Amino acid sequence: GLALPDDVCTIRSISVGVVDIFRERLLDSENFAYITPGTFQPVLGRTPDGWYWIDATGAYDLGTGEAASGTGWVSDRSPIGLFGPCADMPVLQ
C-alpha cells in the first residue's frame, strides 16, 4: 500500500475488499468507482447522516478500471477507516 499522508484527512478500506464510491448520497445511486485496500482518498467533508464526500482522483473507475476522477460519496456503512487530521473536517448539510 501507500504511505499514510499525515497532513490531510483521508479514508481507506479497512477490509480485504474494495469500498464503493457513489455519485450521490444514496446506497442505491450509481457507484462509479472504488477504493482498493492500501490506498487513501482525501476527505472533503462529511454529513451528519454518515456520508463522506471524497476526492475520487486515483480511485479505480468501475467502467474502465483506469484511474477515476472527480468527487464522490462513501457511506459509513462501508468498511472504512479515517486517518490524519479529521477532527476539523467540514460538516455538510
Question: Can you describe this structure?
Answer:
It contains no helices and 8 strands. The chain is mainly β and 93 residues long. The strands form 2 sheets. It has a 5-stranded antiparallel sheet with strand order 7-5-4-1-8, with no helix packed on it. A 3-stranded antiparallel sheet has the order 2-3-6, with no helix packed on it. A hairpin with an 8-residue loop joins strand 2 and strand 3. The termini are far apart. The model has no long low-confidence stretch (mean pLDDT 92).
Characterize the main sheet.
5 strands, antiparallel
Radius of gyration equals 12 Å
Helix content: under 10%
Rough shape?
A: globular
- Give the tally of β-strands: 8
Helix and strand content put the structural class at mainly beta
Spans where pLDDT lies below 50 across 5 or more residues: none
Which oligomerization state do the chains in this entry correspond to?
Answer: single chain
* Spatial strand arrangement across the major sheet: 7-5-4-1-8
Mean pLDDT: 92
Sketch the topology as an H/E string, one letter per element: EEEEEEEE
**Kindly, what is the distance between the CA atoms of the first and last residues, rounded to a whole number of angstroms?**
33 Å
Which strand-content bin applies to the residues?
Answer: 35-45%
Instruction: Work out the helix count.
Output: 0
